[in-house]
Amino acid sequence: MNILITGITGLFGSQLAREFSLLGNIHGLKKEQSSLALLQDIDFPIKWHQGELSEVDSLLEALQGIDLVIHAAGLVSFSSRDKERLFEVNTTGTTNLVNAMLSSGVTKLVHVSSVAAIGRTPELNVLNENFKWIESPLNTTYAVSKYWAELEAWRGEQEGIDLIVVNPAVLLGKASHTKSSSAIYSYVLKENKFYPKGDLNYIDVRDAAKLTRLLVEKKAWGQRFILNKESISFREFFAAIAVAFGKKGPSIPLTDWQVALFSGIVSFLRIFGVKNIPLNKKSAMLSQQKIYFENNKVQELLDYRYFSLRESLDWAKTP
After folding, report:
1. SS (H, E, C) the chain
2. Distances in Å between the alpha carbon of 194 and those of 172, 284, 287, 295?
3. Mind listing the pLDDT tens digit for each residue in 64-107?
């Protein structure tokens, strides 16, 4: 089986490549300037295809002879400056890929979404795959772009594509992978004092990739699965990181007014060109919310044993 992975050079894509190399030949779609750092230790060949989701011709060329597509490419940003780019990459990019698959006759797709695309509502703090998206002040622009991308994937299914959608929570990789969600470690490593009062939903990236492979092996087509180990308070999560890395953990809870003030400062700094700030007012306020994305559906199907948080953090420390 020939397997094409978009976003293969990223945190999740690189781990998906490792898992799916057990099932077939791996093909990777990458930009010319993409770093291969997360794939430097692999022991299997990758057939590379240069291209982008915005370049339909490159997609059509990469899809030749492909049996399964894993669409893991996407943009994660909570900056208002990236609003148009989020929809270009996440939504229009998925549209282009689905259309290219339909034109090429490639009929199997694993679409990597996010728990953000499940949506949020102030009335519920436990959500699962059956929750119907509603307009809510808790939905970020990133969440909307991923939700719209899912709609495009499901359109493809209606037109003949076999589809599995996975919605991963925050992916825990290695602490050295600073360009991914693993940057969450740096907050504790810098020994910041404050912690949000909300909960974090997370999963080890190795678990998320293996679960995705197992779902394909189970032929769970036409379904959507939340990939989440558990919900844990930021206080507990940061404390566990502090113990694992020998640091002093945050000990002071953030109040809502402090979060609002912080968000205002972030917006002010962006006006003057300060970049690489991962939060805005909405995402900062979300960190104060307690929420759990249920993993019952995937557990009932696979009865999976996850890495413990300590096991994940011990692995995160390795080079």
Report:
1. CEEEEECCCCHHHHHHHHHHCCCCEEEEEECCCCCCHHHCCCCCCEEEEECCCCCHHHHHHHCCCCCEEEECCCCCCCCHHHHHHHHHHHHHHHHHHHHHHHHHCCCEEEEECCHHHHCCCCCCCEECCCCCCCCCCCCCHHHHHHHHHHHHHHHHHHCCCEEEEEEECEEECCCCCCCCHHHHHHHHHCCCCEECCCEEEEEEHHHHHHHHHHHHHCCCCCEEEEECCEEEEHHHHHHHHHHHHCCCCCCEECCHHHHHHHHHHHHHHHHCCCCCCCCCHHHHHHCCCCCEECCHHHHHHHCCCCCCHHHHHHHHCCC
2. 21, 13, 12, 29
3. 999 999 999 999 887 778 899 999 999 999 999 999 999 999 99
**Rg for the chain, CA atoms, rounded:** 19
Return the structure tokens found at 174. Answer: 């290695």
Which pTM value belongs to this model? 0.92
Nearest to 70 by CA among 112, 129, 101: 112
pLDDT tens string 51-76? 999 999 999 999 999 999 999 999 98
- Mean pLDDT, range 207-235, rounded to an integer: 97
2-173+202-229+292-310: in CATH 3.40.50.720? yes
| Best CA proximity match to 147, nearest among 59, 87, 106 | 87
Q: Is the pLDDT of residue 265 over 50?
A: no
pLDDT at 285: 66
Contact by Cβ (8 Å): 214, 302: yes
First to last CA, the chain: 32
Side-by-side strand order, sheet with 108-112 = 46-50, 25-30, 2-6, 68-71, 108-112, 162-168, 223-227
